[in-house]
Amino acid sequence: FRTFSKISFFDNFWINLAEIIETSSKIKEKIYFSDSDIRFLTKKFQESINISKIKNTNILAISIQSLDYNEAQNLVERFIDSFIEKEKEWANQETQSQIAFLKKQINKKTDDLDAIEDSIQVYQEDKKIYSDDGDSKLLLTNFLNLDNDYNKEQILFKDLEYRKKIFENELKKTDIPKSYELAIKDSLRNISVLIE
């Protein structure tokens, strides 16, 4: 249950009330309210409205004094609509502030945990304490990388030996041009260097 003395809540209500007046079939021209008119009408509205909480419930009883029943009904409906909109805004603001607070707390705790983790790592390095799990993963990764490199070198070595045999067989031919023979000899030298 909130008090309704804030002008901002009633500003929204009077915008809705102005819509009722503008759409009324009795009034042909638009009515514009100045700030002083809105304050005056807000004060009169506050004096004519009665809001009470029904005992042991979350229900509000709202009544407005007016000479016209339909006008009073429309005013109450617009008042309730405005109240609901304002309640949603208040709830959203509260939720947003809680979310912001929780995000700050999460960031703070994350920073704290990161600092603790860093200090543990520094301590382990200083004292030469290593975890079995971390060391075994590192050793396995290194072994797999070395094995992969060895296999690549083996494949390259076999490829070079195969090329060397092909070039040697080409040199054994007697009817090859001299420039082709020199190119083959140059390739053989390069392959021999790579094999060593």
What can you tell me about this protein's structure?
The termini are far apart. The protein is mainly alpha-helical and 196 residues long. It is elongated and about 125 Å long. A two-stranded antiparallel sheet has the order 1-2. Strand 1 and strand 2 form a beta hairpin. The protein is built from five helices and two strands, in the order H-H-E-E-H-H-H.
Strand content bin: 5-15%
SSE string, helix = H, strand = E? HHEEHHH
Class computed from helices, strands and strand pairing: mainly alpha
Computed CA radius of gyration, to the nearest angstrom: 44 Å
Poorly predicted tracts of residues:
1-9
Query: What general form does the structure show?
Result: elongated
Q: Helical segment tally?
A: 5
Largest sheet: 2 strands, antiparallel
- What is the mean pLDDT? 78
Counted beta strands: 2
Give the strand order, joined by hyphens, for the main sheet: 1-2
Distance between the termini: 91 Å
Q: Percent helix among the residues?
A: over 70%
